[in-house]
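Fig. S4 source data, part A: sequence.
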Amino acid sequence: MKLKKITKILFSFFLTILMSFPYSTVNAASLPAGKFDAATDTAYKLELDYQLLNLIFSTNDNANSVTSSITLPTVCANQSTVIWYSDNPAIISTTGKVTRPTGSDTYVTLSAILINNNQTRVKQFSVIVKGTQVIVPNLTGVSDNYVVAEEETLFLSGMVYATSKLTNVTVQLCRNDWYNTKVITEVKVNPQATSYNLSSISFDTDYLDLSEGTYQIKIFVTSENYFDSTNPLKVSTLTITDDKKDLLEDESDILSIIFSNNDKSSSVISNLILPVLGKYGCTITWQSSDPSIISSQGIVTRPLYDTKVKLTATLSFYGISVKKSFNLVVLGTYVKNSITIKQSDNVNNNNKNTVSLSWSSNLRGRDHKSVRQTSIQIFTYGTNELRFEMTADTTLTSCTTRLDPGVYTVRITYYSSSRKALASGETTIVMK
């Protein structure tokens, strides 16, 4: 259960980071035909899939009234893949399964990450899942884990909301012995309002003479239309320590980098997910030994040759910090085998901006049979401005596209199923 909560926090921060990066919005209807190949241009396909992507509701359901499972597309019409995340997977899972809450209606945000040739967009959908007849009060902002040092005072966080007046809010501080749960102290309030701020409740660990260890905080709520005083609405963990650095060391031990696709530390080609929040609430910042290859946000720019990069995480907590390093190898784009590219001399007078390319490689035997993907990229000469891109899950040997007059660099790469580059080649073409 704790692992699921940690994963939810990590993905939430990952989406925040991803959505903070600037991107160029492309209006699919306004792309000039002479500049882009609408059938293959990555930006066009990604934007079109972004515009068309929607939730598919069950019969009689809509965004404001969800009672049954939702179909979440994972592949779009233009081959963009979609990864889904839910900010409340207990209500709507990442596969669209709906579990109606036993309380009031619940807002859920579904985030779709569209990926097309390593370009990404994030699209979010907010829906309301209809609750059942029992109107359960809602808790927000209550931490799963509280940490204080010995002789410090614990201040709670969060709010309680109800659809009717709250008749009782009880917060218990408990110790778990091997044979039972002992209530050390409790606070009871009678708000007689539809909301209550839990930050008004605190526990003085010095006064309570609490020793180092782990405790439980249980929150019970009743209202005019909710009467369950037996089962807590929330159970949080309180850790009391004489040295908070010990907790940082624990955080450091479990900290890891989340790799994409089939990557691992010795072979990185895709962007990384770098956690920014720890289990006990510590903040994590990252520093790269070579930001031009791996940024502090985990963005990977592959070099020409395999390159070692060290990422250092600084975990900070209550004014103290520890560091942890990760040694990675980012695979280069250089490959031994080559691809020879030729430009067709035949130009159709009715389509002057059309260029036909054909190519061949010196791959032989097993390597040739291992090709699982062909990547074709065309850049404005001397820049990183991508003017044309397409990939195919097969060994292509030719393609045709349209380009404005100018000078371009063509790059073609064959990949294996593990995304290892088997052969590549570049050439310069001139469009008159």
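Fig. S4 source data, part B ends here. The helical segments are 2-20, 42-52, 244-254, 365-369.
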